[in-house]
Amino acid sequence: MTDFLTASGYDDGDIDTNRSANPHMNELIASRYSRRQTLRGGLSAMTAAVFGGMLLTGCDDDEGGDTVTVGASGTGTVTAGRTVTLTGTTSGAVASSVAWTQVSGPTVTLANAATQTASFTAPGVATATPLVFRFTANSSDGTPSIADTTVTVQPAVLGFTAVPKSLADVVSVPEGYAVTVLYRLGDPIASSVAAYANDGTDVNFAQRAGDHHDGMSYFGLAATGNTPDANSSSRGLLVMNHENITESYLHPNGPTNLANGPRPAAEAIKEIEAHGVSVIEVSRSTAGAWTYNQASALNRRITPNTPMSFSGPARGTPVLRTRQSPDGTTGRGTINNCANGTMPWHTYLTCEENWAGYFRRANGDVAARVAAGRGKENASLARYGIGPSSSAAGRLGNYLWSTATPTDASSTVFARWNANVVADAPTDGTGDFSHEPFQLGWVVEIDPFDPASTPRKRTALGRMNHEGCEIGRTIAGVKPAFYMGDDAQNEYLYKFVSATPWSAADANATNRLSIGDRYLDSGTLYVAKLNADGSGQWLPLVFGQNGLTASNATYPFADQADVLVNTRLAADVLGATRMDRPEWTAVNPATGEMYLTLTNNSSRTTTGTNAVDAANPRAYTDPKVDGRGPSTGNVNGHVIRLREAGDTSEATSFTWDIYAFGAGSDLDPTNINLSGLDATNDFSSPDGLWFGLNSNATGQGTPVMWIQTDDGSYTDVTNCMMLAAIPGRVGDGGTRSVTSTLNGTATVTTRIGKAPGATLRRFLVGPKQCEITGIHSTPDGRSVFVNIQHPGEGGSPTAISSSWPASQAGTVATPSRPRSATIVITKTDGGLIGL
Q1: Alpha carbon 260 to chain centroid distance?
Q2: Spatial CA neighbour of 93 closest among 35, 167, 149, 49
Q3: C-alpha–C-alpha distance, residues 33 and 29, integer Å
Q4: Which pLDDT value is given to residue 5?
Q5: Does residue 297 share a domain with residue 393?
Q6: 437 alpha carbon, distance to own chain's centre
Q7: Bridging pattern class, strands 69-72 and 43-51
Q8: The pTM is what?
Q9: What CA–CA distance (Å, rounded) separates 83 from 448?
Q10: Residues annotated as region Disordered (predicted)?
């Protein structure tokens, strides 16, 4: 569209019919503009919008040599996330100033707006959306000439060619993208700590990067100082979990005395410290290179030995009392931290997942608890995976840490992993560590901007194998929701709704953990029940309701704290839907719909307790060609999604469908490959899940969703991977009947979304024997951080099975011990990742 402002040269016939001596308007105009035209000799301008190689040409509609004319014509079309260049041109005398401004449409940031060539990034939109821009050129006396041009933005499309499946020992990304290795196992985070030797001799992991990098968040830092800046994409804090360890590579010749102990103290302390969380400062140079600051005062390792405090309804409850915490208000550390949560008030949630396996417990401890008047605890411990063992020695605990002898006789750093009741100790648990298992299984909040702060375990969110904790959309005056999966076979999906409505001012508060108190310590915890008709309910886990009472025959609940400590038992009573390993949750920032990865379930079958149902409809056999034989159950997993009633986080009901089923593209399309996956997007065992941030086009309109895999069933074909998707909406597909023939025959009807087709595409394939997990980005969406966990986990110091990340630079002549690491992915043209 073209607008014209003309200073002279307009002719509407013989208008001078008034013969009086009074001055005529034309004379005034001629007097007013004659000096300007003499100086300028005429000025004309036109504008064009350039999208890649497409030029929108302007049109010159000058009606006379003395006319100031500005022209623009044509309508350009571009997809969200692409860079748009606006070009204005002038003719005649030199303009005193020029500028581009936006007239209408979603607001964008114009770069170089005071020049003839400006640019912007097309925003994310849900439907075709016009944006109008105005080019203004001012004459020497300030008279403006203007022209408008329209750019129509279409919804986002994936802008890369799918990466093929691969078994190579390298991270593969699409053409036009670059990978930088940023932060590796053992990297020092204090100036006094030496570089990592990577030969098993390194110590002091309390000041080094831990192992098994997992869930991760980026927090923007101000250009100077240590305060948050939500818009900073060049300096920030990267906070990540270290879920576990690859024990064999941490010691010179692997671990010693693994049979029954005792473990050497130096080995045990190294392994303990390699768990937990890292907080590191990272920055991007003007040339675009990312590095971490080894000497930053904000760097911090949080390990299983770091002091913690409890908050919320279970604080001080009897089962939290231990020798170390007689009043049950404090604890030590966090472990097996898997996924995470990024809070809008600039704190980090880390989630304790497979913590139960670290504890030692003798079979005789069952009777000892009964004798101590604590027999009820046996049901709880068994439900969480620390029940009696078939082994005569009972449960020894992962890595046998409890068998190590500390150098300081007063230290309990190893004894706390022994969960047995100690003879002659007080029966309330304050003289031993028999209650230590109840101190784990929580969501922990960390303030990354305050290295001296004490992390808080948020008991209102329940105790389970927390995979992650994803906050939904925050809307002023509405109580926010937090979605969580319990990562184990046949466990449940949960939602916590805060008692406090959201206030946008809290996003900028300086007392960040106190804001966490406000939203995370009081509210209602719910568990999901998914019905066959595509509906669902959130069932409240509230003491005194729905059988959660002291008279419950299965487990007598004492109070709300007891319900929260024993969340699984409470969910059992309510009849929640047993799911195929609920892992990461992610919320679409544009629609509020929640997505959940169901990684796999080897116990899913056609009949019995774990029989197929509408939400978990597959039980089948997946052949493997690597000599390990077939896998059975829901082998390849799926991604389910739900839409809250009324699109509000406070809803107690929802609708659901299955976004996509994992499967090899060669498997039965009728009952297994239900999503019609092909060689560009077939995947197995979805795990990590994340949407682009709504601060850039990847999280606006039709946001990009990232799916990461942790697979053991498709690894004869490809290493683990990461895919990009632009998903639709709940209900965009239809119903399907699925027949399973594993241990019988069963047919169920399920809700399945529209086949993803080209809107789902493989973006990355990792190195050998790794898991792809953990993802976040800078606010501008131009740098994406991804974690590569346990490459070469099947090897040993004498039989190294991967040399990554050393192999990322090229062929390695001498095998190098593999290291979990964080990578940064950037686009060589500086564009948004994925679009």
Answers
A1: 39
A2: 35
A3: 6
A4: 32
A5: no
A6: 28
A7: parallel
A8: 0.92
A9: 34
A10: 1-21, 303-333, 616-636, 792-815
